[in-house]
Amino acid sequence: MCNLYKILNIFVYFSYFSEYYIYNYAMDIKNLFPNIDFTDTIKCINSSKNIVITTHINPDGDAIGSSLSLYYALTNMKKKVNIIISDSGCPEIYKFLTDAEKIQQYKPITHNEKIHSADTIIVVDCGELARINILEKIIREAPAKKILIDHHINSERFADYSCVDENAIATGEIIFALLKQANIKINKQIADALYCSIYSDSGGFRFYKTSQRTHFIAGLLLKAGTNIDEIYDNVYNKNSLSKIQIRGLAMASMKAELDGKLIFMFVTKKMFLQTKATNEDTEELTQIALSVKNVKVAILIREYDDGLRVSLRSKQNINIEPIAKKFNGGGHLNAAGCKLNNISTEDAKKLLTKEVEKILK
Length: 361
Ligand SMILES: [Mn+2]
Description:
The chain has 361 residues and is of the alpha/beta class. The protein has 14 helices and 12 strands. β7 and β8 form a beta hairpin. α6 packs antiparallel against α7 (188-201). It is globular and about 75 Å long. Manganese (II) ion (MN) binds at residues 62, 125, 151, 170-171, 201.
């Protein structure tokens, strides 16, 4: 028995040692983001008792995964945590994540006091505070210390502590680094949420800025218990029929411009009515347009009662963010969006074609 114990101990020692060696050999786990100093953020989190987490409207996998991973880590530290989002709770697609139902849609009566009495507010995956919509004013005015964790280009530095690196493929990457520096154990729940964040924002490890670091972190998340099939199956194989039907109509609407370097895709109000698809059902359509040979930029124009919503996507290092910004929108290098009002779809197409032509020159 005693011998067995010794052997086990030696085994544990060696597995620890080899793990340590592999970590340090591959990348410096304590220094995944050399441009970010997490020290004050960690101090702030450690001294907080009552934390509010929020993120942008139309939350995506990164927004949800980032919020939930922090929620698990902080509630494990016995802190009181509320996740509050201005326009929705958790989108259907991410409800497989533990405690997703605890994500609350903002209601002034229920939440104003909670936000006002929080000692720390953490805003994740949100380049501009305006993207938290109706929550913006109350968050700005709240007496709490504010932490921003984000990877958008030109992220607005409104917070007391900012953990921002635009080279991260997902906010989840930065949260992983933060938790590691804070010596917080990455359990399966945290790993699932972070994997969901990184997997979705990198388009399944395919998008530009997916890096050695991205794969390194993903590997460690798998080691912590994440099941890839489970995440893939939940994120990609739970489509409604409406979603696939509207995809068909949108695919048939595709038009090429600029010798095929630019492709437009349209979703009209009629298509929404015909298929009963939701806004959420149309979120990833641009990816299909980007799969056409020789295309550099894809633009999805969706028609709503209050105007057109434009989603821009690009390949490699073609930066389409300035186009979105020109029309009061925003985003990243390869993914951005804006709204256009009082303009026909046809005129919007002409206008955007001119803008894309300029950046492709
Ligand atoms: Mn993101």
